[in-house]
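Incident log, support desk, overnight shift.

02:14 A customer reports that sequence design results differ from what the structure should imply. Their input is reproduced verbatim below. On-call engineer (initials T.W.) acknowledged and began investigating.
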């Protein structure tokens, strides 16, 4: 993005004007969920929650793929990474996510060959350079990262690279929204949909959700003005009693999305049930490799065993991911649980809600607006 355009979306006067616009149409309290952890971090970083009227509660959703990768899958990653002759590759955030017995950093400290990469193609290159090693890529992410991971599998097939595989943990946003809205404890009245996910998938999948549950959904970007525009449009619909899907990120997102990207995803992956950490199994909420590409599936290649893991009894990340609690309501937040010594994944990830609160604000008491 051109820097002049980017900082235009952070212009103080424009931001203040948009807040005034929200105040003008607001007549009652509303609870709105931003589904994406990147939006959560922007909200805390720029203090948008402090600028908004107190009648608007922002509920933080499970939109962080690092945070929702199941404990069982993290344990499988630890098992595989500990094997001799394995090079285990991952994005940096995953290395500190706690499993039942340590994390990938602890495996590395014990001598395991664990490496940080910035693309699945980096892992493929490592496999080419180390033909006597088994190279595994931890393929996590929402719909946003799926096209690159799918293309990597196709590239491995084309190059006949036999020592490469993926431990797949792809999750999808629309089923998570349905699960949240179906919960008897749901408090969400409107959604900000993740702009980067919709860049790939479009927003046609959200239309039946908005209609069935009678909630407005607005596709939203990540700059301060983007987020406030999304909130404004949601509030406007809530006040009017409408429940449509709107696109407030039209400079990037279209209704249909990226059709070629969707085709390559469908070619390599198929829909499956997926366990979300702290939430449980959400039917048809993930992708796994098709049988055609089973030889690239690390779970099948290494025949990993399930481990009955347990989360820390002090950690309430599951409630935070469901939007039922705020990070500062956890007794361990900022004391026993910090980014250096995390009890849960939401304190580890660069998109985790707990990490956002720790980095940008510290709270005392139950009021989200009372800063230390």
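02:41 Re-run completed on a clean worker. Output:
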């Amino acid at each position: 993005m051109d820097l002049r355009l980017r900082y235009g979306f952070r212009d103080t006067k424009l931001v203040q004007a948009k807040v005034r616009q929200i105040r003008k149409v607001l007549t009652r309290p509303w609870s709105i969920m931003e589904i994406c952890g990147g939006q959560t971090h922007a909200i805390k970083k720029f203090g948008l929650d402090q600028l908004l009227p107190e009648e608007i509660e922002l509920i933080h959703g499970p939109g962080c793929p690092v945070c929702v990768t199941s404990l069982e899958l993290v344990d499988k990653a630890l098992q595989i990474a500990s094997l001799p002759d394995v090079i285990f590759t991952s994005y940096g955030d995953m290395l500190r996510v706690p499993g039942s017995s340590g994390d990938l950093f602890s495996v590395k400290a014990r001598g395991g060959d664990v490496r940080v990469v910035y693309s699945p193609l980096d892992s493929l290159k490592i496999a080419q350079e180390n033909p006597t090693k088994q190279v595994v890529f931890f393929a996590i992410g929402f719909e946003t990262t799926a096209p690159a991971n799918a293309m990597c599998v196709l590239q491995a097939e084309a190059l006949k690279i036999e020592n490469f595989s993926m431990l797949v943990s792809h999750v999808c946003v629309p089923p998570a929204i349905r699960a949240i809205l179906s919960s008897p404890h749901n408090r969400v009245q409107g959604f900000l949909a993740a702009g980067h996910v919709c860049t790939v998938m479009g927003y046609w999948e959200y239309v039946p959700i908005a209609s069935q549950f009678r909630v407005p959904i607005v596709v939203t970007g990540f700059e301060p003005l983007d987020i406030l525009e999304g909130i404004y449009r949601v509030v406007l619909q809530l006040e009017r009693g409408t429940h449509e899907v709107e696109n407030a990120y039209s400079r990037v997102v279209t209704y249909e999305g990226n059709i070629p990207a969707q085709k390559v995803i469908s070619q390599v992956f198929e829909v499956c049930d997926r366990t979300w950490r702290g939430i449980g199994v959400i039917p048809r909420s993930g992708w796994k490799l098709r049988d055609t590409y089973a030889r690239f599936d690390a779970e099948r290649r290494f025949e990993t065993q399930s481990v009955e893991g347990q989360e820390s009894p002090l950690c309430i990340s599951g409630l935070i991911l469901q939007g039922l609690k705020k990070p500062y309501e956890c007794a361990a937040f900022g004391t026993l649980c910090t980014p250096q010594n995390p009890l849960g994944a939401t304190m580890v990830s660069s998109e985790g809600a707990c990490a956002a609160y720790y980095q940008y604000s510290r709270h005392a008491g139950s009021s989200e607006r009372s800063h230390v």
